[in-house]
Amino acid sequence: MAATDRSTPCLVALLAGAGVVHFLVPRPFDKTIPSWLPGRARTYTQVSGVAELLLAAGLANPRTRQVSARATAGFFAAVFPANVQMAYDWRHRPAPLKAAALARLPLQVPLVLWALKVGRNADR
Fold first, then answer.
1. Cβ contacts of 47 within 8 Å, gap of 6 or more
2. Most distant CA atoms of the chain, gap in Å
3. Quick one: which of 25, 64, 76, 87 has the most CB atoms within 10 Å?
4. Phi/psi at 25 (nearest 5 deg)?
5. Is residue 39 left, alpha or beta, with left meaning phi > 0 and alpha meaning psi from -120 to 50?
6. Tens-digit pLDDT profile for residues 88-99
7. Based on C-alpha coordinates, what's the Rg of the chain?
8. Tell me: the pLDDT tens digits for 12-56?
């Protein structure tokens, strides 16, 4: 299997794993929900977990892969405010934790690009 052939299953696994973790251990995700959003943080955690599971399923199916890849790129962009919230909330934590929170911010760019690449490769 070529490296590009592994890209889609790896993205599927990342999304499915993250989706499951949103339900198994929701509190850390709840804490990243920006306080200015209306409603309960847990609702956003659960909705994003369901979204990740649905996106993983869509990417796993060759018939829906292209549209799911675009939706995944949009999802990765949409959760960026949660990463900003985490970086802000962790600004006074020990240096390694603060660094991890700050490192998540630019990580969204390669995730978006990865999803778009999976979508482009869906036609092949």
1. none
2. 48
3. 76
4. -135, 75
5. left
6. 988 999 999 899
7. 15
8. 999 999 999 999 999 988 988 888 889 999 999 999 999 999 999
CA atoms within 13 A on the CB side of 69: 23
DSSP per residue, 95-124? HHHHHHHHHHHHHHHHHHHHHHHHHHHTT-
- Rounded Cα distance between 7 and 115, Å, is 9
What's the burial of 12, exposed, middle or buried (CB within 10 Å: 0-12/13-18/19+)? buried
Residue 75 near residue 116 (C-beta atoms within 8 A) = no
Compute φ and ψ for 30, nearest 5 degrees. Answer: -55, -40
Inform me whether the pLDDT recorded for 4 exceeds 70: no
% helix / strand / coil in the chain, to the nearest 5? 80, 0, 20
Query: Tokens 């999976």, residue?
Result: 118
